[in-house]
Design goal:
- By secondary structure, the protein is α/β, with parallel strands linked by helices.
- It has one domain.
- It has five helices and eight strands.
- Helix 1 crosses helix 2 and helix 2 runs antiparallel to helix 3.
- The protein starts with a strand and ends with a strand.
Length: about 160
């Protein structure tokens, strides 16, 4: 799934993943619901697009399993080759992952800082985020007739 690269910062670190165009509104809605960590954001997004949320969760589980099983500083050649394109979700844990997290998707790069209540549109080649908006709930990856609405609290900033 490609579109935006999202970097979500919470008190424990940074998670980076790709997502669809509609994902920007879903992430903003999670921020509007005052979620304070990545797990809370993913739980919220799961109610709006379960396939995308599960894809992120599975990718992070795989990344965590790889990090636990590899010797310090060493990656198998298969894992290293797969990571070169950085399509799967990952945690920012070193300089290599930090650099990969700053490579935008085809629609751009959004950094969501849950600690400081900011959404930074580092590179947005699509429609800009709004403080108040709505989007379509998805089921089985397809849009439904059901809409969700969100409003970011006044202490949240959207940086162009």
């Amino acid at each position: 799934m490609s579109g935006y690269r999202f970097n979500v910062i919470d008190p424990t670190g940074v998670v980076s993943f790709l997502g669809p165009r509609h994902g920007s509104k879903m992430i903003a809605a999670a921020c509007g619901a005052n979620h304070k960590d990545v797990d809370g954001v993913l739980t919220f997004v799961h109610s709006l697009d379960e396939l995308w949320a599960r894809e992120i969760e599975r990718g992070l589980e795989a990344f965590d399993a790889e990090k636990r099983s590899e010797p310090a500083g060493a990656l198998s050649s298969d894992v290293a080759a797969e990571r070169r394109d950085w399509l799967r979700p990952f945690r920012v844990v070193d300089q290599e992952t930090r650099q990969a997290s700053m490579k935008p998707g085809p629609l751009g790069l959004l950094v969501v800082n849950l600690k400081e209540h900011r959404i930074i549109q580092v590179d947005n080649r699509s429609i800009g985020l709004r403080r108040t908006d709505r989007g379509r709930v998805r089921r089985n990856g397809k849009p439904t007739r059901m809409l969700f609405r969100y409003r970011l609290p006044s202490d949240w900033a959207i940086v162009p």
